[in-house]
Amino acid sequence: MIYLDSAATTLQKPASVAYAVAEAMRTMSSPGRGGYESAMLAADTVLDCRTALADMFCVKRPEQVVFTSSATHGLNIAIRSLIGPGDRVVISGYEHNAVWRPLWGLGADIRVAASPLFRPEEAIRAFRERLPGAKAAVCTQVSNVFGYILPVEEIAALCRREGVPLIVDASQGAGAVGLDFDGLGCAWAAMPGHKGLLGPQGTGVLLCREPGEPLLRGGTGSMSAEPDMPDVLPDRLEAGTHNVPGIAGLLAGVRWLERETCPAVLAHERELLEAFSNALPRDGRVRQFRAPDKDIQTGVLSVQIGDMDCEEAAARLGEKGVAVRAGLHCAPLAHKTAGTLERGTVRFSFSPFNTYREAVAAAEAVKDILG
After folding, report:
1. What is the pLDDT of residue 227?
2. What's the alpha-carbon Rg for the chain, to the nearest Å?
3. Domain that holds residue 298
4. 3 state SS of 1
5. Sign of the C-alpha dihedral computed for residues 109, 114, 120 and 122 taken in this order
6. Which residue positions in the chain have pLDDT lower than 70?
7. For residue 103, how far is the Cα from the chain centroid?
């Protein structure tokens, strides 16, 4: 199988990740719940992972790194900490349902800073026009549908100028596109562990400026006599037993990225996208959503194949051993903004473990299903 759905989950991971998960299950218990060896080993692993993530994303203190079960979990914490019913919130036109649905469920006044695909200057202008008077803003770092890198640095600067706290959804950028949390001055940044960070499913990370409001309440292993949650990070937002095997696997993924470097990963994925794109038919039967400037696109390419239904195209590619995602990708707002809502797209997303040969073979599979 040629796996090209890493924008959903990286299936191919460093061997050290699976080893770390298995070793943690064999040797570690719960951090903060005892002073015996297995509890202390778990505590050390959790702290090491926090510290590595703080270093990777330029966070001042490891305590500001909170572990969640997913990016969705983290975004819900961030959104509920800042926003209430009727509050005006400005979001980009490329947000995932992990942003749209929590805001809609809260009854927020959602203002979409819509802008054309791969036009960062228009995105900046749209935010500049809509930010005054907003309670908060949310912007994805990278579109999960199109691999479009939004101008988060410039949008963050606008938010600082207007005094509007910013939430960054770094789900598709983490592990490839750099994120300077302190430099951006954003309030929160959320990401999953199972995509570009190469960790297991069921892991996520929330970078926090302030303690915020807990989404879950319960045991933390600290201040147990108090009825309310602790008022300090990370305990305030980490109720319940940690996913220690998952965190151990996430640490192994982060360590691999430290050695290989995120810029090298991004460069590799872009090379594969270019090879795949160049090998596709040039007769107009395949519509590619490719940026004119490669610096604003990651290794993700959405296409529409002939007049074929996107789900049918993905199924036929699957029969040929090419695993891709088709449809709306849990991001109907992005499709509406880009004008692809009616049909959706077929998404090819590359990882550090894909090869040039796989990229070309995937393009050949597209040619085959076109006939």
Report:
1. 87
2. 21
3. 2-11+262-370
4. coil
5. negative
6. none
7. 18
